[in-house]
């Protein structure tokens, strides 16, 4: 059966990185009749340039209909002063919200070949394997009111609203507990219950659902600020971390940085299983941004984008062997010392975006 | 003229750490007629035990009247299930709010003797000297509505509100720019303007006041998630960071952890200068918490509390020489290899809370 992929390379290095994934898709179609059908659209600054919105309704429809969306990156100085409603990020946020992609899976793993590239001492990150589960459709990202009011007298007021309902916390906690069972069976939930009412509710709901349905999983609670510190102090203490949209944004970026290079890390954003087919809407994207400073030079590291496609094989198409092989190929290429500039080290060979893709393909 | 200090040791190791500051105050009164007059109150769990509130009105009044408040730490498992309104942290939040301590100064410095204790590679933190300026009386900490609503059907809704007005952003940015002038003259402002309207306003106001009054200071803007990553990647790129209450909470804890030991770092929370006297209300507290696991054993590191008193000498009493001397004494004691357990290293001598205080006093 044809597998429909909708590609949204976006801006900056998103374009180049997606090129390497296209090669892998073509190879899988040729060599193993994988039957991927791809279509492509615009998101972010390039979509704004083309039709004045960060994503068009037509492309949104295609994203909704696809089996999976592959997303590159959005943004760049060129669009720094476009109106808030059509800024590049609005495209990504609309995709997350309209597709109801509430569960963002952000693995922070440290490839052994790269432990030395981390700013942390190698022994603290060697073999690191954390999975951050970030709530992605709620919290301060989408709560209303969200506005700037003119108070007169030269004063303005900026307002954002953090909202979480029981069901939103339950479903993200469920994802965390279920994935923990396939790993080291430990979940750490992070919030600021000492300051935020949404944190109080978060803590209660996670505790209750744990007791009711997942008491076999080890559960800890940590204040989000302490969690950030512990990530820097001793990241290997964690298995699965579950947290809200904004804390997840901060904490997963800190965790990503611990691993040595942001250019390496993929993410998956999943919706709820469909009642009839059991299929989840899904979007896969690298954790890194559009890196406008190096875009178009053919030097960007495509590994995060390729690893995002591996997650896509795993979660959207249940192609576990293929996903394993692709991930192994990434590790092998790193072991061989073939590197883009961002992860260069003594004794390695510096290559371009395309060479990395080719080397992974060869494996 | 008598200098009125109000001491709030609070819970856990707050008690022991404050004991060492008392020694220093007594010494300064004896040896240099410093004329400190101290009074003492309860805050946090111990205040709740004594009179059912995290701080009593009587103690609040004393705090308001004092020249400076020295605060230890609050909280512990004993009070984990007291009602939200009287939880230990409520005492600290009330002090910040009622005293209008909008400017929280959190230096993250790395004592050369401790660079090896950081989880970061020593060359990344050796000589690190960042000042984080955190807005402390606004944002999601205090905005209304802040509540949990029962929606029926077993569903609840947790709500918190992030609010910033122009004047709040202006005054905290002003503090950051002014302090930057006494340092390396560079400010980095952090928010999430790509997601939050309060972040959009924050960015605008900081940019405008910079242009109008502080254009001699170098100003950069960074998204808060990227800021967290950059702190881990290359912390020495920063001089002064200015950010909101919640991001400041997260980022200053990450920054504190970078330096090797949280047990080392002080903070100052300042109000606006009084129109008549020019004096600022002020509270000084260590960045570490109450550490209930080691409380009462005489092994806690009192250095953050002592360094907080040094900040008090500097900012509340303009006793610059005395502050410098106290800070130098801390560095000397560390150089001598006299350490509490949290910062022990090979070849150092492990001592208790009191020994550190005595050693610093000797210097
Ligand atoms: C681009 C931006 C809106 C986004 C976010 O804040 O969620 C990014 O930082 C991320 O983490 O995916
Ligand atoms: C104790 C708590 C309320 C407090 C905060 O969140 O501000 C603490 O984490 C801090 O950073 O001073």
Automatic annotation (TrEMBL), chains A, B:
Cellular compartments annotated: Cytoplasm
Cofactor field: Mg(2+); Mn(2+)
Signal peptide segment: none
Binding annotation for substrate: 96, 106, 134, 225
Primary role: Catalyzes the oxidation of 3-carboxy-2-hydroxy-4-methylpentanoate (3-isopropylmalate) to 3-carboxy-4-methyl-2-oxopentanoate. The product decarboxylates to 4-methyl-2 oxopentanoate.
Key words, A-Z: Amino-acid biosynthesis, Branched-chain amino acid biosynthesis, Cytoplasm, Leucine biosynthesis, Magnesium, Manganese, Metal-binding, NAD, Oxidoreductase
EC number: 1.1.1.85
Annotated site residues (Important for catalysis) in this chain: 141, 192
Binding site for Mg(2+): 225, 249, 253
GO cellular component, one term: cytosol
Known pathway: Amino-acid biosynthesis; L-leucine biosynthesis; L-leucine from 3-methyl-2-oxobutanoate: step 3/4
Isopropylmalate dehydrogenase-like domain location: 4-360
Protein name: 3-isopropylmalate dehydrogenase
Gene designation per UniProt: leuB
Cofactor note: Binds 1 Mg(2+) or Mn(2+) ion per subunit.
One Pfam family this sequence matches: Iso_dh
SMART domains linked to this entry: Iso_dh (SM01329)
């Amino acid at each position: 059966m044809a597998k429909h992929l909708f590609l949204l390379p976006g801006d900056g290095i998103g374009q180049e990185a997606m090129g390497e994934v296209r090669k892998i898709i073509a190879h899988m179609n040729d060599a193993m009749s994988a039957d991927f059908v791809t279509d492509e659209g615009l998101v972010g600054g390039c979509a704004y340039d083309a039709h004045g919105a960060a994503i068009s309704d037509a492309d949104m429809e295609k994203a909704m209909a696809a089996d999976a969306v592959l997303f590159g990156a959005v943004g760049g100085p060129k669009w720094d002063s476009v109106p808030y409603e059509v800024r590049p990020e609005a495209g990504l946020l609309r995709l997350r919200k309209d597709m109801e992609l509430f569960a963002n899976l952000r693995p922070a793993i440290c490839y052994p070949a790269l432990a030395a590239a981390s700013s942390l001492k190698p022994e603290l990150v060697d073999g690191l394997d954390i999975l951050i589960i970030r709530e992605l459709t709620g919290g301060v990202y989408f709560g209303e009111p969200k506005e700037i009011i003119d108070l007169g007298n030269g004063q303005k007021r900026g307002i954002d609203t953090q909202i979480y309902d029981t069901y939103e916390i339950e479903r993200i906690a469920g994802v965390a507990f279920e994935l923990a069972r396939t790993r080291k069976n430990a979940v750490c939930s992070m919030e600021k219950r000492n300051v935020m009412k949404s944190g109080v509710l978060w803590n209660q709901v996670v505790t209750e659902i744990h007791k009711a349905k997942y008491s076999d999983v080890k559960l800890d609670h940590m204040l989000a600020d302490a969690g950030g510190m512990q990530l820097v102090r001793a990241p290997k203490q964690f298995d699965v971390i579950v947290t809200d949209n904004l804390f997840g944004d901060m904490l997963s970026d800190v965790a990503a940085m611990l691993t040595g290079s942001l250019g390496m890390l993929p993410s998956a954003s999943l919706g709820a299983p469909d009642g009839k087919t059991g299929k989840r809407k899904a979007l896969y994207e690298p954790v890194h941004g559009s890196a406008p400073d190096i875009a178009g030079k053919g030097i960007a590291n495509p590994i995060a984008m390729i690893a995002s496609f591996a997650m896509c094989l795993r979660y959207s198409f249940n192609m576990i062997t293929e996903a394993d092989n692709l991930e192994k190929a990434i590790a092998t290429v790193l072991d061989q010392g073939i590197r883009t500039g961002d992860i260069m080290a003594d004794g390695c060979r510096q290559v371009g975006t395309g060479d990395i893709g080719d080397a992974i393909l060869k494996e």
